Amino acid sequence: MDSKELKDLLISAIVLAFVFSYKGIQNLSALPRNFLISLFAISFAFIFHEMGHRYYARKFGCYSRFKMWKYGLFLAVAFTIITNGNFVFAAPGAVVIYPRIDLWGNVKKISRKENMIISAAGPIVNIILALISFAILKIFTFNMTEIVKEIMVYSIGINTWLAVFNLIPIPPLDGSKIFFYNWKIWSIIFLIALSLMVIL
């Protein structure tokens, strides 16, 4: 990971932490504390989501890196302020995949199935993190400090939201690549994410 990619990840994480922690103009006094809690939770949810994409892209022989989407970050902040914190638009950027070219000039192309797996990796990571956070919250609830409980609650909310949002089958979101490859696989993953968002 180079300095440019790290910078893009950090800026995106900070913006997402703000939009998830902003609870309206009437609750500005709680924003600093909520922001720090959200930043901790989003660092795992967002960065692990992107690293899931990155890992499988590289596993399939391609070069990949996270690229920040400035317009998406602007929309995230704008929607949050306009809706007074009632709606989160979470599209800060994406993992861009570049095919590898070997010494003989052969281009490594990924199949539609491989592209689907790469796309599904991010939301699945969020589903797993949401379940882990829920398990930690339930198992250790009596031994937790209040701030750790809040971090786990934020983690559940952020991870389920990122999973559901990214699974919307509209390009360029992850869900579109899964849906157009196999709508049955998409349905299973989406229903699991949506169910967790409602239940947890």
Distance between the ends: 34 Å
* Number of separate helices: 7
Mean pLDDT value:
89
Enumerate the strands of the largest sheet in spatial order, edge to edge or round the barrel: 1-2
Sheet with the most strands?
A: 2 strands, antiparallel
Counting DSSP E segments of at least 2 residues, the number of strands comes to 2
What string, H for helix and E for strand, traces the elements in order? HHEHEHHHH
Q: What is the chains' assembly state? A: single chain
Shape: globular
> What proportion of the residues is helical, as a percent range?
55-70%
**Low-pLDDT residue intervals, each spanning 5 or more residues:** none
Strand content: 5-15%
What do these coordinates show?
With 200 residues, this protein is mainly alpha-helical. 68% of the residues lie in helices and 7% in strands. It has helices at 3-21, 31-59, 70-82, 112-139, 146-166, 174-181, 183-199; strands at residues 62-68, 93-99. The chain has a two-stranded antiparallel ribbon. Helix 1 packs parallel to helix 3, helix 2 (31-59) runs antiparallel to helix 4 and helix 4 packs parallel to helix 7. The mean pLDDT is 89.
SSE arrangement:
Elements: H1 3-21, H2 31-59, E1 62-68, H3 70-82, E2 93-99, H4 112-139, H5 146-166, H6 174-181, H7 183-199
Antiparallel strand pairs: 1-2
List the keywords.
mainly alpha; 7 helices; globular
Précis, in short:
By secondary structure, the protein is mainly α.
